[in-house]
Specification:
The structure is a single chain. This protein is α+β, with helices and mostly antiparallel strands. It has two domains: about 210 residues, no CATH class; about 90 residues, no CATH class. It is built from 13 helices and ten strands. An eight-stranded mixed β-sheet has the order 5-6-7-8-2-1-9-10, sandwiched between helices. The protein has a two-stranded antiparallel ribbon with strand order 3-4. A hairpin with a 4-residue loop joins strand 9 and strand 10. Helix 2 crosses helix 4 and helix 11 runs antiparallel to helix 12. The longest helix has 18 residues.
């Protein structure tokens, strides 16, 4: 697909999304400070199906107000505080730290519209890794068989509503994901990306598509080139998905990732949680939950390789 066509598609999607925003201040901030980057542009270049459009924001104020707006919307949709299961839970809230914005869901970590009683952890899914679960929730939401929101008829028809919240991102219906883990100019955001082919981007306010030559070469050759990431463990796992789709990767790229992993203290449960979450909603959430429970039972508990191996074998079989 050519550059001009991609701009038309992204702009049309963006304008349609903006119509759904009820708060004029938030709408203006998104119109002026949003960009789309990542896999959607790769898919459009290759004439492939787009899974979702990943939005990022250029400043902390926009990121904060977008997060607050959608957390408020989600809480309005669930006035009885019941989601994911029939258990009554505390409402998700937004926390603003010095260098980041995050959504906190007390006692759960993630919330969504659909029932998670048959939740499958991502490693057990055959293909799309983390996105599989989000897709499953989205499909269930569209069927609207188990929504607790009333009136049901109106909710089902509402486009771009929040259906899945994690500390790092907000997934909306209609193929939009708002990433709040990182913000800044494209070059700053891409410092947190792992593979170069995902570093093309579209600037919303200018309807401008910026194509990176190295990224294009990677896409044309279907060759993974690792540029470094805050989440090297997730990067290693993500390679499975690309390889299944015909991409290639050489041993040197794996060595880069392994070296970055070696610099992490994975015996620290907080570090392990951050690494396994990465930018995906629920990577290895059950592993973290088990470790945290163990630490509650014994404050002196330290993660060890044998313990981690044992719980992974129990969870993933």
């Amino acid at each position: 697909m050519d550059k001009r066509t991609i701009c038309k598609i992204l702009n049309a999607k963006h304008l349609d999304y903006l119509k759904s925003i009820k708060n004029e201040e938030v709408k203006k901030l998104i119109a002026e400070n949003a960009l789309i980057t990542g896999g959607s542009i790769v898919s459009l270049l290759l004439n492939s199906k787009v899974s979702d459009f990943d939005y990022y924001f250029t400043d902390k104020e926009t990121c904060t107000k977008v997060a607050q707006y959608y957390v408020d919307e989600f809480n309005k949709m669930h006035p009885d505080n019941t989601y994911l299961t029939t258990t009554k839970l505390k409402k998700p809230i937004v926390e603003v730290e010095e260098d980041r914005v995050k959504i906190v869901v007390p006692s759960v970590g993630i919330v969504g519209e659909a029932d998670s009683s048959d939740y499958q952890y991502f490693e057990g899914l055959p293909d799309e890794v983390g996105q599989e679960f989000v897709d499953k929730i989205t499909e269930a939401v569209e069927k609207a068989d188990d929504l607790s929101v009333q009136p049901l008829e109106e909710t089902v028809k509402e486009k771009y509503r929040p259906i899945f919240l994690s500390s790092n991102a907000i997934t909306l219906s209609n193929q939009v994901q708002l990433v709040i883990r990182f913000y800044g100019q494209p070059e700053e955001i891409h410092k947190n990306y792992d593979f170069v082919h995902c570093t093309n981007y579209w600037i919303a306010k200018d309807n401008k598509l910026v194509l990176n030559q190295t990224a294009l070469e990677s896409i044309l050759a279907k060759r993974l080139y690792y540029v470094g990431s805050l989440y090297p463990i997730c990067s290693i796992i993500r390679t499975r998905k690309f390889i299944e789709h015909g991409w290639r990767i050489n041993a040197g790229q794996y060595l880069k990732m392994c070296f970055q992993v070696s610099e992490l203290d994975l015996t620290n449960i907080a570090v392990l949680e951050e690494q396994l979450t990465g930018v995906d909603a629920s990577y290895f959430y059950q592993v973290i939950e088990w470790c945290q429970e163990k630490q509650k039972e014994n404050p002196e508990f330290k993660m060890t390789a044998p313990y981690l191996i044992s719980i992974i074998d129990k969870i993933f079989g």
